[in-house]
Design goal:
CATH architecture: 2-Layer Sandwich
Shape: globular
Strand order of the largest sheet: 4-1-7-5-6
Number of helices: 5
Distance between the termini: 7 Å
Number of strands: 7
Strand content: 25-35%
Radius of gyration: 15 Å
Helix content: 25-40%
Number of domains: 1
Order of helices and strands: EEEEHHHEHEHE
Bound molecules: magnesium ion
Largest sheet: 5 strands, mixed
CATH topology: 60s Ribosomal Protein L30, Chain: A
Structural class: alpha+beta
Oligomer: single chain
Length: 159
Amino acid sequence: MRQRFGIGYDSHVFGAKRPLVLGGVQIEHDSGLKGHSDGDAVTHAVIDALLGAVAMGDIGRLFPNTDARWKGADSLEMLAEVKHRLMAASYTIVNVDVTVVAEKPRLAPHINRMCENLSRALGLPPRAVSVKAKTNEKMDSVGRGKGVQVYAIASVGGA
Ligand code: MG
């Protein structure tokens, strides 16, 4: 089995009047993340890492923000669609690892549920999905709580 790797990155700014959703978990906060879908930057970065690993483009190409179908969409459903495309092309997802950077709210209490949601959407065992939360030590705009940044890597086996 040939091993492939993909990197994903996403950032969203706070300011939307809707729940904050990261890794499919609704988190208590004074503002949600702006974006065409539910603004779930964690899931978006995972999607781009998976698509990158198999050179299938990126989230914007698969789910254009001009498409009303994805307005306010549950990003976990988009992730499940990406998994389906990889399966259809005979790829096997090995693992994903995520770092989410946010000054607030505190994400540590929500990490396990993010992992569970991503594992379920990807059909992976818990040991294959990792999410780590960091702050930006108050530096720059993320450090001032303006938004979140997410980095993800995925390993995929296949042709
Ligand atoms: Mg995004």
